[in-house]
Amino acid sequence: METKTAVELENLADLHMHISASVTPEILWDLAHEQGMKLPMRDYFEFAKSVTIDGNVGYEEYLKMYDLLEEIQSTPEAMFRLAEQVPTHLYQHDKIDLVEIRMNPMLRSRSGKIDLDHIIVYTLQGLERASLKFPRLRTGLILSMDRRFPPEVNKIIVDKAIKYKDRGVIGIDLAGPIDKNFSFEPIEGLAKRIHAEGLGLTIHTGEATNADEMWEVVTKLKPNRIGHGIACVHDANLMAYLREHRIVLETCPTSNLKTKSVKDLDEMRFNYQTLLEHRVPFTINTDGPILQKTTLPKEYEMLIENHILTMDQAQAANQLAHEVSFIK
Ligand SMILES: [Zn+2]
Fold first, then answer.
1. Helix, strand or coil, per DSSP, at residue 246
2. How many CB atoms lie within 10 A of CB 43?
3. Which end of the chain is more exposed for a tag (fewer CB within 10 A), N or C?
């Protein structure tokens, strides 16, 4: 007899969380002022509104909000503080005891004026300090490449991930807005290096892009996991490929609604039921709880209450997230 409710789910794992989208407006406001930053709005409440998404804004608008957030997070000290505070909050409030945080160090370099190693080391030390407070809390850092960057810049990010792989960097991601000039060709060599070094590889695809792009990603880059990937539900062969190669989707339900990648709860129900029917491995994540105005427990709650997943299916997704974490 299943008596648990979603809010009672414990030991949650979030594998897909951009730190840009995971910091409360209170902390961001303080950080901006500590740096003497001139913000586009003088009023706190106006600011707070601008760093969370109220309605469903669409993919492009959504990504634009990242610029200001990243600007505020562009000093080593700021990253140190956030890297400690974000997992601390997740552990204390959301029962999350495993979190993989991702960030793009290059977007925090103020056009090369801030040293990448400082950004990365301070972030890693913040994460470590959070784990010091809660022995059960496990954290890891994923460095994100960006579709807008030329290959040589993405290569630097991979070099840094390799440099810090024994000190808390667990993997590499590819994120950023869809860019017409972007090509997967130069990423292929990087992907081989990432695999050879034993780092995890996850790629944002099948969110704003279609199943054709997902095919390119899985065959050329052979990622361990895919960020979103919901576009696969329209391609049975692709779903079989994901299942057979055990490529795990990091789905982010509320994020998909807000970016309008998924129209409504009916479409969401169809998507998850299709994934389950085809036994495509998937996990549930937030993408960034503050910007999305959600929490991981709320995501599970929404899925269960709307009969999108059963409690058992939700627990299985969380169990899988622990199993496929890049944190060793
Ligand atoms: Zn994402």
1. coil
2. 9
3. N
Using the mean position of ligand 1's atoms as its centre, give its distance from the Cα of residue 261 in Å: 12
Place of tokens 């960034």: 288
| Beta-carbon-side half-sphere exposure of residue 300 (alpha carbons within 13 Å) | 27
Tell how far the Cα of 1 is from the centroid of ligand 1, in angstroms.
36
Give the residues across from 139 on adjacent strands.
99
Tell me the CA–centroid distance for residue 173 and ligand 1, in Å.
Answer: 9
| Residue 105 dihedral angles phi and psi, to the nearest 5° | -65, -30
Adjacent-strand bridge partners of 140: 100
Which stretches does DSSP call E strand in the chain? 12-18, 96-103, 138-146, 169-175, 200-205, 225-228, 248-251, 282-284
Q: pLDDT tens digits, residue range 168-203? A: 999 999 999 898 899 999 999 999 999 999 999 999
**CATH code, 8-323:** 3.20.20.140
pTM reported for the whole predicted model: 0.94
The residues whose Cβ lies within 5 A of ligand 1, an ion, are 287
